[in-house]
Design a protein that fits this description.
By secondary structure, this protein is mainly α. The protein has helices spanning 5-17, 22-43, 50-63, 78-83, 87-99, 104-123, 150-157, 165-180, 184-188, 218-233, 235-241, 261-275, 283-296, 301-308, 313-334, and strands at 195-196, 201-205, 211-215. It has a three-stranded antiparallel β-sheet, with no helix packed on it. The N and C termini lie far apart (63 Å).
Length: 341
């Protein structure tokens, strides 16, 4: 399906006004396209005809809000179908998702996309009403975030080599993830100028481009310093990176370019295999472990919320359930009368 001006405008809104990352905006776009394709299939629009497609796009671009007329066409325009979809049509789409065996979490995400889209469309005058006000998000079983033990963290952090630039970089990345609780997207977005050795902190650009200062542990600072020391001594990287500046990427690949999130995951997988840890552990697991270990050791919830960059305290509260579960497990395993005989 070709991109409609309406969906393009929504994409611009997500990236420029909501400050969504390109990845998140693409996910929203894919969810919205699926909804539109379902409407097209339901109403029999032949989108393979270039002339019809152009007419639909021109109508959207020129008319803005749909005035409810078909301009003489025997079939409704695509804009009309999208912007005048009612709650019953949305429910048909949700039924389709259920028949496709999508998980409850995936359905909830797709509903969130439609809530955002129709709220935006109503505000801009493209849609007269918002059908999502009549749609409930299905209840989901709350999944506790996965965390690993301190001993497993230590085992993982000791895995990278200390004798070459890439090994030291990997050690510094893993130390930073666990020391600060950063998202992997925040980690790869770090620049040299974001590191403040004096205050032992990092300036982090989180979701919505919001900045926060995050303290770092001594082990992470030491690992970064050792990585940068060897990096600057290696002529290959110095030539690729040019003269260092505050906007120079902190973590670079073998070509001296900014490291990608996918590369961080590949490096982590490599070290998980080398030390025999669960291969399902992800960079986000280190973020969960950071929060869990802080709360286990007495940190207050508001502080952990700020460190993680959560907008809502309820997002952080899931970790209290995890620490409570760990306490219950410890009690059952240790107390002689915890379990019935």
């Amino acid at each position: 399906m070709s991109t409609l001006p309406l969906t393009e405008a929504f994409g611009v809104y997500l990236t420029e006004e909501r400050r969504f990352s390109p990845y998140t905006a693409r996910c929203y776009g894919a969810d919205l396209r699926q909804h539109i394709e379902h409407l097209i299939a339901e109403h029999g629009i032949e989108i393979d005809e270039p002339a019809e497609r152009a007419a639909l796009e021109n109508r959207t671009a020129s008319n803005g809000a749909n005035n409810g007329t078909n301009n003489g066409s025997a079939k409704p325009t695509l804009t009309k179908l999208i912007c005048e979809a009612d709650a019953d049509q949305i429910r048909k789409y949700l039924l389709f998702l259920d028949e496709q065996n999508y998980s409850a979490a995936t359905v909830a995400r797709k509903i969130a996309t439609l809530r955002s889209f129709y709220k935006w469309a109503e505000r801009r005058g493209f849609a007269v009403t918002n059908p999502m006000t009549l749609i409930r998000t299905p209840r989901q079983n709350k999944r506790l975030p996965k965390a690993i033990t301190v001993e497993q963290v230590e085992q993982l952090l000791a895995a990278p080599s200390d004798t070459d630039v890439l090994g030291r970089r990997d050690r510094a990345m893993l130390e930073t993830l666990y020391s600060t609780g950063l998202r992997v997207s925040e980690l790869v977005d770090l620049n040299v100028g974001d590191l403040d050795i004096e205050t032992e902190s990092l300036r982090v650009r989180g979701k919505g481009k919001k900045e926060r200062m995050v303290p770092m542990g001594r082990h992470a600072i030491h690992a970064i310093n050792r990585y940068l020391e060897l990096l600057h001594q290696d002529a290959r990287y110095a030539a690729a990176m040019g003269s260092a500046s505050p906007t120079t990427p902190l973590f670079v690949n073998k070509h001296g370019k900014r490291l990608s999130s996918r590369s961080v995951r590949r490096k982590l997988d490599k070290y998980l295999r080398s030390v025999g840890l669960d291969p399902s552990i992800s960079p986000h697991t280190l973020r969960h472990s950071f929060a869990t270990h802080l709360l286990d050791n007495g940190a207050d919830l508001r502080s952990v919320q700020e460190l993680l960059g959560h907008q809502s305290l309820s997002t952080t509260q899931v970790y209290t359930h995890l620490t409570a579960q760990r306490l219950r497990d410890s009690y059952r395993n240790a107390h002689p009368r915890a379990e019935a005989s």
